[in-house]
Amino acid sequence: MDMDGVLVHEAQAIPGANEFLAQLRGRGEPHLVLTNNSIYTPRDLSARLASSGLEVPPEAIWTSALATARFLDQQRPNGTAFAVGESGLTTALHDVGYTLVEQEPEYVVLGETRSYSLGRITQAIRLIDAGARFIATNPDPAGPTPAGIVPATGAVAALISRATGVDPYYVGKPNPLMMREALRAIDAHSEDTTMVGDRMDTDVIAGIEAGMRTVLVLTGITTRELAERFPYRPSLIVDSIADLLDGL
Q1: Given 2, 140, 198, 203, which residue is catalytic?
Q2: pTM, entire model
């Protein structure tokens, strides 16, 4: 399941989310909370969810940073990277044996950060122009804050692409790669798994392309009317995750 818009909204637990998670634990159902947010480590996110009253252990959280690190480890083990991001990304890269360097990296890896540095972006542009491969944790163009939207990874990736003429490879949702890695993490099969999300263009399409059933909840940014505009449909649309309690 997705996190923002499904379990929490602006740091407040969505009614029914805690009961839903408790039912999953009580039934012994393997599950993961997925997020394209690469700022935080799973331990950080677990603590943030706990402050909202939700019990999700770190091992039940899968981030785009973890998926990106796993992908790089499979492609070029023990490689080098120039990273633009926060501890969620740098910790994931370190944990798979990657070395973070400032010169001649094999990869430039772009993630989300609270404040993008023009100096770091410029350095990323020059390294890519010199031949480094370009990876981005996710394509989300903007993220919500209480004060309004802020530019996210996809927007900064577009800036770098425009300057270099090089498009990144996006690892996070809706890339089915992230979903397959998540399935592998809980030893699950797509035909027996359901993706629950609040966005048609990331959560639902990622689930569909990975061969899962999909549930759209309306506690995020998507309305029923907006969902009808897409050329694909989720398996089920519900008002909130609370409506899935009886379904379990």
Answers
A1: 2
A2: 0.92
Distance CA 237, CA 234 (A): 7
Pairwise CA distance, residues 137 & 100, whole Å: 16
The reply to whether 95 belongs to the active site is: no
pLDDT one-digit tens code per residue, 135-160: 999 999 887 677 777 889 999 999 99
User: Which residue of the set 4, 44, 140, 198 is catalytic?
Assistant: 4
Residue 4 annotated among the catalytic residues of the structure: yes
| 8 Å CB contact between 110 and 160 | yes
Does the pLDDT value for residue 248 go beyond 70? no
Report the C-alpha gap between 200 and 247 in whole angstroms: 21
Decide: 221 and 201 in contact? Cβ < 8 Å: no
Of the candidates 51, 32, 48, the one whose C-alpha atom is nearest the C-alpha of residue 40 is 48
Which has the closest alpha carbon to 189: 169, 173, 212? 212
Going from the C-alpha of 123 to that of each of 3, 88, 234, the distances in angstroms are: 32, 21, 41
